[in-house]
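Hi Q.,

Before the meeting this afternoon, I wanted you to have the 1,3-dihydroxyacetonephosphate prediction in hand. No need to reply - just skim if you have a minute. The sequence and ligand are here:
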Amino acid sequence: MKKLIAGNWKMNGLASSLAEIEALKGVTGEAACDIVVCPPFTLIEKAVARTEGSAIAVGAQDCHAQASGAYTGDVSAEMLAEIGARFVILGHSERRSAYREMDAAVAGKAVAVHRAGLASIICVGETREERDEGRAIDVVRAQLEASIPNTATSTNTTIAYEPVWAIGTGLVPTLEQIEEMHSSIRQMLKERMGGDGQHVRILYGGSVKAQNAKAIFGVSNVDGALVGGASLKASEFTGIILAAV
Ligand code: 13P
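Predicted structure with the ligand bound:
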């Protein structure tokens, strides 16, 4: 399966940061993977313009489930599609914890993303406490079951496994732990989606750097990465992209 390397800029980046996206255009020729950068809403349209004609796709980090209406401060999937976004990250742990986004809300947003013709990157992952209690696999399975809508196909859906305790901490699960979780996610996807579940990309996220990417990409059922901090600088993100080749 062709790997997908996705950058999540979170709430970082002003117009001056667009040069970091533009600098990636140089590597896409060498890259045998799909690349998407998800800057804040304010930079999406500009990023689309600056990457036109290249292999780099641009995505958003969230959207509302409705197409329009009285939802002050929100942005719909249709609005994102109109400005050229092609992916939307949904259910990131920072949104699940800071805004109490529940699985059902994530599923509703994913339906909206698919309705607008975009692709969803649905995030799941356990906390440190849940892993220590031996519940990581069960927690992630329950999140997946309730967060993936019936509109999901391998073309419009990617899963990102991001252990909460590995995000922004420099901590990474062992390769065995990643393999165990990704294989469990694959199993669940096949149960849920039949043969198509085999083709859904499963990304690993949480402290991925140029230096550890190659080993992580060697793990079976790891079909790419969702990268936070290391996606902000083209030099570091390029190292991760090239590790996926
Ligand atoms: P870091 O790569 O900074 O750990 O962040 C991971 C993440 O949350 C990507 O969505």
